[in-house]
Amino acid sequence: MVPAGFYRVNSGDTLTGIARAFGRDAVAIAHWNHLSADGALDAGQLLRVAPPAGVASAPAVLNARTPASPEPHTNATQSVAPIGKARLAWPVNGAVAAPFVAGKTKGIAIAAAAGEQVRAAASGRVVYAGGGIAAYGLLVIIKHDSHLLTAYANNRALLVKDGALVKKGQAIAELSSDSHGDASLHFEVRDGGKPVDPLNYLPKRP
């Protein structure tokens, strides 16, 4: 069992990818774990991804880009409205295959069809689109306001890139399938940097 505030490294993980997924600064994680200058990681390594007790947290990478700070060539008049609870949309059509369990899981699994398009749960800015964390497959992270972000994992193809502004309901990825042909989206909501139950932010289904 991995203790709270830690992450077990998988083969293919990168320090940058892990830092972005946890909303941390890669330099801070390297410092907390006394990593070498090149930030080399070993599969199975237990990595601290939260500041040690008594150490102030460094500014999160995901907080470094706010929706009000446009990327180059982006229309500066575009903005992202703050999002409150129960204002996210379901990213795929399917039943919850695995629920959120506080302290044990970071999100929910939503059953879907292989190749189904994954849609942004709300408007925002893509702060990560890549495969830097092996356990997540191809991953998209969207920042919606100063405290709320969503993450979409287990994809076979990404339809957006870092820095892109997306609208609620816009297709951002395509789901992959396992060896049995089954597919499910791993969906996370982080509020203030902490994983929370996505069902508290999604509309109830009949």
Automatic annotation (TrEMBL):
Question: Which InterPro entries did the record assign?
Answer: Cell_wall_metabolism_enzyme, Dup_hybrid_motif, LysM, LysM_dom_sf, M23ase_b-sheet_dom
Which CDD domains is this protein grouped with? LysM, M23_peptidase
- List all Basic and acidic residues biased stretches: 184-194
Source superkingdom = Bacteria
Annotated ranges, domain LysM = 5-49
* Region Disordered, residue ranges: 184-206
Q: Which PANTHER family match?
A: MUREIN HYDROLASE ACTIVATOR ENVC (PTHR21666:SF270), PEPTIDASE-RELATED (PTHR21666)
Official protein name in the record: Peptidoglycan DD-metalloendopeptidase family protein
